[in-house]
From TrEMBL:
PANTHER family: PROTEASE M3 THIMET OLIGOPEPTIDASE-RELATED (PTHR11804), SACCHAROLYSIN (PTHR11804:SF84). Its cofactor is Zn(2+). Gene3D superfamilies: Collagenase (Catalytic Domain), Endopeptidase. Chain P, domain 1, Neurolysin, domain 3. This is Peptidase M3A/M3B catalytic domain-containing protein. The lineage of its organism: Eukaryota, Fungi, Dikarya, Ascomycota, Saccharomycotina. Binds 1 zinc ion. Keywords: Hydrolase, Membrane, Metal-binding, Metalloprotease, Protease, Transmembrane, Transmembrane helix, Zinc. One of its GO terms (biological process) is peptide metabolic process. Belongs to the peptidase M3 family. It comes from Tetrapisispora phaffii (strain ATCC 24235 / CBS 4417 / NBRC 1672 / NRRL Y-8282 / UCD 70-5) (Yeast). GO terms for molecular function: metal ion binding; metalloendopeptidase activity. GO terms for cellular component: fungal-type vacuole; Golgi apparatus; mitochondrial intermembrane space.
């Protein structure tokens, strides 16, 4: 089956909300060569230009990077060509009378491997091209290919071929004693198992009537989620306030808001949109509680047209699970994740919730005291309540007043060029890699010229014989029409082709970091440094995949509740004093950051951490609640407003006041196939991330030996083996929750 690119998106609701950066201007930065150096046992050593010259031949990439010279017409004609070729290929495959590994499976693997780059390029451009016509053509191509893929994945004649081969395998000696199978055979067996399982999970082993029903359900679900996210992306709603009502919001932020004159009152009003750079500063800094209350609820109630799509999808999912023999949709979806079933997930979430409660109650007491003091100062009434619209405001006030963290000032020490060089250096040291930027105009090709950096990545295990790993792109700053969050897009997986030659992977990081202004270069905020480390974690996962079959390599190959763990683990480096110090270089003076500034920042890492975790648990438990219904009526009778708000108050311990809202209408995760009954995965993966960090890196974060083990055991194996077995091998024991609980301040 054709495998599509899916962005590995940073952040749940929550984490990225906490310190969301404000992205306003649009600036391209010139590409600057990334430092070239390599790690040996004595530590870091920079290559001088002459040394590079000497070794130049060793660093000629054995594979050219892809070309990006697409026109809108070509995008559509290529997409149609791929669909036609695929149709021909599958028709030929189903015509084979005696399908076998040799005449059926291996050609299928090769076909899938060979086509993934072209498909991903065509579908990726909608997110990043500078040209609207190209973005539109890419979106159209994506729709064509997605529909085609649903058809192919439900082709009964293809399933019959796989089914026969799968049954034959049961008599295969090597399959019955996998230890004797070569790595290549092992992968092929796993490929057959996986394809067969995918078909069964799509109901291909059921009657024609049921298969048709499933096809209809799948198409409707796909349509609903497409529409849901389109509505979300295109919403242009806002809430308006007077200047007085927005007291406390900084002048810079006030300048962002469009203004108009209210016809009835004649007052000037400021339009606050629900885009992060508008709504968050209001929730964080507007002094008037009524303003915050109105803004919070208006934001939560946006995109009301999504409600019917959401409810319809819940019903369809329940139906899908039922036809496929599961009591709930959650159990169907969890079957292929680490957690396996809903009982395990619920136990995990509820246990955490109970443990966090006493800690969160203490945090609220502190925040309430601040609220009380402020009320006295401002001569406002104090009612001894702590509402949901109070939280961002007092959390922010606490950070500012108590810890005195000046995020703007800190960012002056992190100009984007030197910081990224430094971050790559850390990656190189830990994982024994080497990044070399492609600056040769004849060899460089990107979708947005020099707005995008292109780098060749090498493995340096034998310094005299660098081993090419693949290509990575960095598209770091906002642009009109560009994807608005931070994500890693896998472009082409690593695989071995039909001539037994390794074909190298291509991957891209797409971010929206603060851009340069008229008087300052682009400076990275601390949360942007963390984001870069996070996304690069996914990117490296993609690059170092060592399996022969593309679909077993990279983040997309591991169970979805593990996918964030490698990236979450790397975030720890961005909270270490030494690493932050080494990355710093003031944009004017070149000075290192004063330690006191770093200390103030690091001290805030866990501030209000229990309340933050409980908010995540609210999302996770709501997601489980709506996906564990056991009959249709349950969904019809479900009071979603009560469920969403009631659960939030009960779990996050923050009061709703007299108003309830429909925040689920913009809960994008819940509409995705991967994150439905899967939001818990963020915290679940964090258990492993924290365990790996504390047991292997906390004492010596730059330890190359641990880094190489991590690279080769956790990342390079992708999804070919059980994740838990890899973890056991890397940790030298069963994974444990202990470090995670400790990190949350429990135990
Ligand atoms: Zn991620």
């Amino acid at each position: 089956m054709i495998q599509f690119l899916s962005p590995i998106i940073k952040s749940g609701i929550g984490k990225s909300f906490k310190n969301k950066s404000i992205l306003l201007s649009l600036v391209a930065i010139p590409a600057v060569a990334i430092g070239i150096y390599h790690q040996n046992n004595q530590g870091l050593r920079f290559y001088t230009a002459s040394q590079v010259k000497m070794n130049e031949a060793a660093f000629i990439a054995p594979q050219l990077s892809p070309k990006w010279d697409f026109s809108p017409e070509r995008i559509l004609s290529d997409a149609k060509k791929i669909i036609d070729t695929s149709n021909d290929f599958y028709n030929a495959m189903v015509a084979i009378e005696n399908p076998s590994i040799e005449n059926f499976v291996i050609p299928s693997i090769n076909f899938e491997n060979e086509n993934s780059l072209a498909i991903n390029q065509l579908t990726f451009l909608q997110h990043v091209s500078k040209d609207k016509l190209i973005r539109d053509a890419s979106l159209e191509a994506t729709e064509l290919i997605t529909n085609f893929d649903i058809e192919i994945s439900l082709r009964y004649d293809m399933f019959k071929q796989f089914d026969k081969i799968f049954n034959d395998l049961k008599d295969n000696k090597k399959y019955n004693d996998l230890k004797t199978a070569t790595p290549k055979d092992y992968e092929i067996f796993k490929y057959v198992e996986k394809c067969h399982k995918d078909y069964v999970r799509s109901g291909l082993n059921l009657s024609e009537e049921k298969r048709n029903e499933i096809k209809e359900i799948k198409k409707r679900i796909a349509l609903n989620s497409l529409q849901f996210s389109k509505n979300l992306g295109e919403q242009n709603e806002f809430v308006a306030f007077t200047k007085e009502e927005l007291e406390g919001v900084s002048d810079d932020v006030m300048k962002q808001f469009e203004t108009y004159t209210d016809e009835q009152t004649g007052e000037q009003k400021f339009k606050v949109t629900f885009k992060y750079p508008d709504i968050f500063p209001v929730l964080k800094t507007a002094k008037n509680p009524n303003t915050r209350k109105i803004a919070f609820n208006a934001d939560q109630n946006k995109v009301p047209e999504n409600e019917k799509l959401f409810i319809d999808t819940l019903k369809l999912r329940y139906q899908l699970g039922k036809i496929l023999g599961y009591d709930t949709y959650a159990n169907y979806n969890l079957d292929i994740k680490m957690a396996k079933n809903q009982e395990t997930v619920m136990e995990f979430l509820v246990d955490l919730k109970d443990k966090l409660k006493p800690l969160a109650e203490k945090e609220i007491e502190v925040l309430k005291a601040i609220k009380k003091t402020e009320a006295q100062e401002l001569n406002m009434a104090y009612d001894d309540h702590y509402y949901i619209w109070d939280h961002r405001y007092y959390d922010n006030k606490y950070l500012k007043d108590k810890f005195n963290v000046d995020l703007e000032k800190i960012s002056e020490y992190y100009p984007v060029e030197s910081t990224i060089q430094g971050m790559l250096k850390i990656y190189e040291t830990v994982m024994n890699l080497k990044f070399i930027e492609e600056t040769d105009k004849d060899l460089k090709s990107t979708w947005a010229g020099d707005d995008v950096k292109q780098l060749a990545v090498w493995k340096m295990d034998d310094p005299s014989k660098p081993e090419f790993v693949g290509w990575i792109y960095f598209d770091l700053h906002p642009r009109e029409g560009k994807y608005g969050h931070a994500a890693n897009f896998g472009m082409a997986p690593s695989y071995i082709d039909k001539d037994s030659k390794r074909i190298y992977p291509v991957t891209a990081l797409v971010c929206n970091f603060s851009a340069a202004t008229a008087d300052k270069p682009a400076l990275l905020k601390h949360n942007e440094i963390t984001t870069f480390f996070h996304e690069l974690g996914h990117g490296i996962h993609d690059l170092v995949g060592n399996n022969g079959i593309g679909r077993f390599n990279g983040p997309g190959a591991v169970p979805w509740d593990f996918v964030e763990a490698p990236s979450q683990m790397l975030e720890f480096w961005t909270w270490n004093k030494n690493e932050l110090l080494s990355l710093s270089k003031h944009y004017k003076t070149g000075e290192k950051i004063p330690e006191s500034l770093l200390e103030s920042l690091i001290a805030t890492k866990h501030v209000n951490g229990a309340l933050f975790a409980l908010r995540q648990l609210h999302f996770g438990l709501f997601d489980m609640k709506v996906h564990t219904t056991t009959d249709d009526n349950q969904i019809d009778n479900m009071d979603l407003v009560q469920l969403w708000n009631g659960l939030r108050e009960e779990i996050s311990l923050v009061e709703n006041g007299d108003e309830m809202n429909k925040g689920y209408d913009s809960f994008g995760h819940i509409m995705s196939d991967s994150y439905s009954a899967g939001y818990y995965g963020y915290m679940w993966a964090e258990v492993f991330a924290t365990d790996m960090y504390y047991s292997k890196f906390a004492k010596d974060p730059l330890n190359t030996k641990s880094g190489i083990e991590y690279r080769d055991i956790i990342l390079a194996r992708g999804g070919i083996r059980e994740t838990n077995d890899n973890l056991k091998e890397f940790l030298g024991r069963e994974p444990s929750k202990e470090a995670f609980l400790k990190e949350l301040g429990l135990q």
